[in-house]
Amino acid sequence: MTADEIRGTAQGTAPTPLSVLDLVTVGAGHTATDALRTSVELSRLAEKRGFHRYWVAEHHSMPGVASSSPAVILAHLAAHTSRIRLGSGGVMLPNHAPLVIAEQFGTLEAMAPGRVDLGLGRAPGTDGATAAALRRTDHLNEGADDFPQQLAELVRFLDDDFPDGHPYRRIHAVPGPVQATSPGGVQSPHRPPVWLLGSSGFSARLAAALGLPFAFAHHFSAQNTIPALDIYRESFQPSALLDEPYALIGVSALATDDEKEARRQVMAGALNMIRLRTGRPGLVPTPEEAEAYEFSPMEREFIGSWNSNIIHGTADEVRSGLDDLQKRTGADELMLTSHAHDGALRVRSYELIADAYGLPTAA
User: Fold this and answer.
1) Alpha carbon separation from 80 to 39, 85, 142 (Å, rounded)
2) Are 46 and 55 in contact (CB under 8 A)?
3) Rounded to whole angstroms, how far apart are CA atoms 283 and 252?
4) Closest listed residue to residue 8, CA positions, set 318, 226, 334
5) Among 126-135, 217-226, 346-355, which stretch is predicted with the lowest mean pLDDT?
6) Which value, in Å, is the radius of gyration of the alpha carbons in the chain?
7) What is the pTM of this model?
């Protein structure tokens, strides 16, 4: 595991490396199978066009988001790609035993050596009741105590270096380093690099203290982006992995051939978010349904705020918006997530953005 597995290289005229965040969204009239087929198509396009990495986010109990099992989806994408980095954006650590995550991502690393990222978050990726069902407990603690301890335990399993006397000293995550110490054993030199994800200052401080790369959720916490990045950069402590901070930001971006279509898709996405925020999650509605919907004044106020952070329009408009955002934040990498009712429009969006930046077209 080296810094080269973290840092990407900007392609074409892009200001930074560009990457993809996939929520495997399911639109009304479509199935999860359709959404996963779109993910395969999109991962192949991203690899072909020089996007640096492709991450899948963990969410639960949301009909319009089919990414409840990132490790399973990433294994499927690994079978359909050969070069692009694959990872979680992220796995919600409190939902899982650290040993299970170490085993899953050790398996992914064995499937796709040298191109797996392990992004971790401390939120549940769902509502409290669903989180309780996932964890089989009503004690939900995403505070300063549990998460750093869980993270330390996970890293110990990944590195197989619990100290003598520790109750887990003789427990090993397999696939993993223990295989190299077995008679005749040979182990991969790679280990999935750990990233911390966040939407506030907590994970920014922790990533800085540990010298880890940091991914900030600008796409749903834009007001906290610059403060969190400032905390991360000012507090960063060099580590064996990184000698200086490296931060990417998640950005909602949708490019279409027709500017009007971009606005229609964004409004459908806003309606979907309103339903989610009011306890009525469902499939991503069609633009026609959003056009017919009578938004209340409060809902229109929410839409104005929500849509102001989505860079959308023609390819040139999206490119200009991304350039401006990168200049304002100084992000080392832009990870783009697109939300549209139809999977083909999502794929087309990334194709248009790649063209706008002159990204490579070689197979």
Assistant:
1) 10, 12, 35
2) no
3) 18
4) 334
5) 126-135
6) 20
7) 0.94
